[in-house]
Amino acid sequence: MRVHRMSKAASRVFFVLSLCAGALGQQSAPPIVIPSTGHPGLDNYRASRIAVYTDDYGQLARYRDADAALKPPAAGENRVVFFGDSITDIWKLDESFPGKPYVNRGIGGQTTSQMLLRFRQDVINLQPKAVVILAGTNDIAGNTGKISNEDIEANYASIAELARAHGIRVILASILPVHNYTPESQDFFAQRPMERVLALNGWLKDYCAANDLIYLDYFSALVDDKGLLKADLAKDGLHPNKAGFAIMAPLAEKAIEKVVQ
């Protein structure tokens, strides 16, 4: 009889727990609140990226299949990976560098924190001779949250150290200037204070000099007499058009020639 009474008690406990679990399961998840950045356009962008930030922060899925399908470099092949954000992502490397074994691994909107996560998959595993890294503008904007210049610099350094540990020559490109000459450019410009661009570019130049890396100075070739991106090089003030890339391409090629023989 005692065993029977304990069994009934256990059943009652199980029943209560089941009811509680059911009630909890029926409750809707609280809405995700994205802290405002003070820039409506950026707030909307960040809200649209919740699935990325929670499910695949580094966006490894973007190039996973392409990386797996890419064969190892052939003997004598001077493979170079262009690694970056949307500015790299939209760059048609086959048009700017016809016949060159250059691989595009840019992902729009990414910050250096995200790029660091995918560096092994999208660069190291591809066994390039060199990597051209263009990043930082989205960090300044706060695409994945506020980040200090010091933490951005740490990400640059970590990426460079990983590359060097695997025998990959490093080319660190300057952050591009931005402008506010068009209606489309206002948000991008407001999100990227020029003093931070200049400070990070100064750090990049000094870091390259101290560590025997190549500093690729796009900034000086694209900036106007007001310190902004030349108006005719980007309608939205941030992303170079064909004319912009035509200026950048020979600079990149010259940098690559210094490290790839």
List keywords for this structure.
5-stranded parallel beta sheet; 261 residues; Rossmann fold; disordered N terminus; 9% strand; alpha/beta
What do you see in this structure?
The structure is a single chain. The chain is an alpha/beta fold and 261 residues long. The relative contact order is 0.11. Mean pLDDT is 91; it is low at 1-6. Helix content is 52%, strand content 9%.
Helices, strands, pairings?
Layout: H1 2-26, H2 40-48, H3 50-55, H4 61-69, E1 80-84, H5 86-89, H6 93-96, E2 102-106, H7 112-122, E3 130-134, H8 137-141, H9 149-165, E4 169-173, H10 186-191, H11 194-211, E5 214-216, H12 219-222, H13 242-259
Helix pairs in contact: 7-9, 9-11
Q: Reading side by side through the largest sheet, how are the strands ordered?
A: 2-1-3-4-5
Instruction: Work out the radius of gyration.
Output: 24 Å
Low-confidence runs: 1-6
Oligomer: single chain
Largest sheet: 5 strands, parallel
Structural class: alpha/beta
Number of strands: 5
CATH fold topology: Rossmann fold
Number of domains: 1
- Share of helix, binned: 40-55%
CATH architecture: 3-Layer(aba) Sandwich
Q: DSSP helix count?
A: 13
